[in-house]
């Protein structure tokens, strides 16, 4: 589990892992910072990976919901999940996932719903949400929208629209820029494959 002494290192590592990956720069390190103080944060499931005293990985969990008319089912979501660039591909991401999925299963959570890399998570057992009759809040399904059951059949009977925590929606650019001043300056660069 993360302690306050790890906060800066986990944010710095997250910034390095996501920098220029999907956009110019990134905001995931600020998201990590915001999640910790949000009511939907689940610290009991969230973990960091540490090697030789350095934070090399991080996974953060939050509460989310599946809404089916009058019925609301509590569910969980993780993100950011990331690994220090030079340690990627050595199984740290998978270790963080398997450890925390087992913690969540033991605490009785039924399933995890995420937006994530469609090529990475199926290897861990995630399936697209159309397999579970779960859609996004605006009724869509696509490859990056995935879920996993935490016990056999545990998502049976749960269907509806997925709503993630509001903490993901509130990352104004100016706040991210201000937050970036806490870390060594990194250059924003445009690469093919970025979303915008
Ligand atoms: C995605 C990420 C968390 C995976 O962690 P990791 O420790 O590097 O991954 P692991 O070592 O556990 O797994 C490695 C396997 O996943 C594959 N993999 C890693 N990242 C991948 C990606 N983005 N897309 C597809 N496959 C990926 C590797 O090719 C490898 O496959 P193999 O076992 O068949 O060789 C990490 O690479 C990372 O932090 N990436 C940048 C941030 C990010 O994109 N986070 C996820 C957002 S949804």
UniProtKB/TrEMBL annotation:
<dbReference type="GO" id="GO:0016747">
    <property type="term" value="F:acyltransferase activity, transferring groups other than amino-acyl groups"/>
</dbReference>
<dbReference type="InterPro" id="IPR000182">
    <property type="entry name" value="GNAT_dom"/>
</dbReference>
<protein>
    <submittedName>
        <fullName>N-acetyltransferase</fullName>
    </submittedName>
</protein>
<dbReference type="Pfam" id="PF00583">
    <property type="entry name" value="Acetyltransf_1"/>
</dbReference>
<dbReference type="InterPro" id="IPR016181">
    <property type="entry name" value="Acyl_CoA_acyltransferase"/>
</dbReference>
<feature type="domain" description="N-acetyltransferase">
    <location>
        <begin position="1"/>
        <end position="151"/>
    </location>
</feature>
């Amino acid at each position: 589990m993360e302690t306050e002494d790890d906060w800066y290192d986990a944010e710095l590592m997250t910034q390095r892992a996501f920098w220029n990956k999907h956009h110019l720069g990134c905001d995931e390190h600020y998201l990590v910072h915001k999640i910790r103080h949000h009511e939907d944060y689940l610290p009991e499931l969230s973990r960091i990976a540490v090697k030789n005293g350095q934070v090399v990985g991080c996974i953060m969990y939050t509460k989310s919901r599946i809404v089916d008319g009058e019925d609301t089912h509590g569910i969980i979501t993780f993100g950011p999940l990331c690994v220090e660039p030079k340690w990627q591909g050595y199984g740290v991401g998978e270790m963080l996932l398997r450890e925390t999925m087992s913690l969540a299963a033991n605490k009785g959570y039924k399933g995890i719903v995420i937006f994530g890399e469609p090529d990475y998570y199926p290897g861990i057992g995630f399936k697209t949400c159309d397999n579970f009759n779960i859609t996004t809040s605006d009724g869509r399904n696509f490859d990056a929208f995935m879920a996993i059951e935490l016990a056999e059949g545990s998502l049976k009977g749960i269907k509806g629209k997925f709503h993630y925590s509001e903490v993901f929606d509130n990352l104004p650019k100016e706040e991210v820029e201000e937050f970036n001043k806490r870390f060594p300056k990194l250059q924003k660069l445009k690469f093919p494959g970025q979303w915008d």
